[in-house]
Amino acid sequence: MTDATQTYTYTHADLAGLMGLMTGDEKHGPAATSTLDVLWVLYDRVLRVSPEGRDDPGRDRFLLSKGHGPMAYYAVLAAKGFLPVEWLTGFGSYDSPLGHHPDRTLVPGAEIGSGSLGHGLPIAVGTALGLRAQGLDEPRVWTLVGDAELDEGSNHEAIAFAGPAGLDRLHTVVDNSSATYARPGGIVARFEAAGWSALTVDGRDHEALYAAFTAPHPGRPHVVVARVEPKSA
Fold first, then answer.
1. CB within 8 Å of 192: residues ≥ 6 apart
2. CA dist list (Å): 19 to 150, 195, 214, 233
3. What is the DSSP string of 68-134?
4. Number of CB atoms found within 10 A of residue 75's CB
5. Half-sphere CA count of 76, side-chain side, radius 13 A
6. 144: which strand partners?
C-alpha cells in the first residue's frame, strides 16, 4: 500500500482521473465537481497544513461542511498525500474508510465528520473561538459550505455572531452552484450585513480564487462566494 506521507507529484489535471477511480451509487457527482477548483486552490496554495503536520496545533483547519459530495475532497486529499490513492477505488464500500460522507476518525486530514447540512460554519465559528481562547493567533479556519445550506438557521446564527465577534481568522467559501438567493444583493449581502468581508468570484478561475482567498480583511471574518455553472443533475 502506498505510504500517504510520501511526496506526490499530482497536479490539477490529474484530479478528474482520481475522481474517476471512485464508482458506485450515491456519488453525488455534481455536488463534488462543483467544489473541485476551490478545494484544489486551497490545498495547493493557501492552507498551511500537510500530511505530516495534520495534528500540529499551529496548522490551518479546513472543515468540509458540504460533506454529501466528498469525491473531490477525497481526490484532493489523495493528490496531496493525506491518504493513499488506492483507497479511492473502494469509495463507499462496506469496509472502506471513504464513506459517502467523510468521517473524521477514518479519513486522514478530515477535521470534522460532515454530510448533514448546516453544521460546518457553526463548528468553524467554535473552532476559531477555541483557537483564540488558547492564544493561537496564527492558525486560520476555513469552511466550505453549499449555497443551499444557507437556508439553515444554524448558519445564520453563525454568520450573525462571527462578524461582531471580529473572528478575522475565520474564512468561509460558499459553493454557489444551485441556489438563487432572493435577498437583494445576493449571498454576499447577507454576510456583509453581519460585518463580514465578502467577495464574489468565478469558482473555476484559479487566479481569481487565490486572490479572493488571500485578500486582506483585518478585524473581520471573510467569505468568498464561488460561482460555478448550475448543476445538470
1. 185, 198
2. 27, 37, 27, 17
3. T-THHHHHHHHHTTSS-GGGGGGTTSTT-S--SS--TTTSTT--S---STT-HHHHHHHHHHHHHHT
4. 27
5. 24
6. 64, 173
Question: CA-CA distance, 3 to 150, in Å (whole number)?
Answer: 38
SS3 readout for 151-207: HCHHHHHHHHHHCCCCCCCEEEEEEECCCCCCCCCHHHHHHHHCCCEEEEEECCCHH
User: How far apart are the C-alpha atoms of 169 and 127, rounded to whole Å?
Assistant: 10
Count the neighbouring beta carbons within 10 Å of the beta carbon of residue 165: 16
Residue with the three cell numbers 463580514: 196
Grid coordinates standing for 213? 482567498
Assess contact for 71 and 29: CB atoms under 8 A.
yes
Of 204, 140, 206, 129, the C-alpha closest to 172 is: 140
Mean pLDDT per 10-residue section of the chain, whose length is 233 residues: 53 94 71 90 97 96 92 96 96 92 96 89 98 96 93 94 98 85 80 97 97 98 92 51
